Amino acid sequence: MVAEPDPLTVAAAVQLARAIMRAMSIRPAPLAGLALLLLTGCTLTRPPPFAGSATPATPTGSPPGAIAPGTPAPGPGEAVPVVPDRPSAPARQFRLGAASNALVNQAHGQAGSGDFGGATATLERAQRIEPDNPLLWIELSKVQLAAGNPGQADAMGHKALALASGDPAAQAAAWRAIADALRAERRNGEAAVADQKAQALGTR
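Structure (tokenized):
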């Protein structure tokens, strides 16, 4: 497309034509034709403006409620499939290893025959195998209570409770050991509270 003549270009062409006329004594009539010729030669064809295509921005996230890629779209009247929640992790459960279990059985026999010192020593051997197992502290609490040491039984019950985090059954057993120790000390109100906590965690 040919652009409109630039006014500056036209003025320059006229001045050039006049200079040539004065030099060659050309009459004014051909001056118009010469100016038009020069104007035509000086006129530049301007390129059309660049018509770049704008690329629309692509959204980076999916709108709320969008169906995940690869999932077929529901038909009319069909409900949008809902992805089920992941199942919660099961509760922790403490158990005795084979060696510790054998020592606990041995301690039961010793305590049953009145050898509370021997039972305590046997349970302490089991604790060296599994020092963080609350079940062994509960066994020690029972032995101390039977030996007539409710204060030590209470302390060992609280130690078991601190180690039983995440295991409702072990926590309930620890609270029951604490309640028994408190009753032996005639602290019946505190014992009742401990029993309630044990019942909230599991049946006795």
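Residues 34-39, 50-54 have pLDDT under 50 and may be disordered. DSSP finds eight helices and no strands in the chain.
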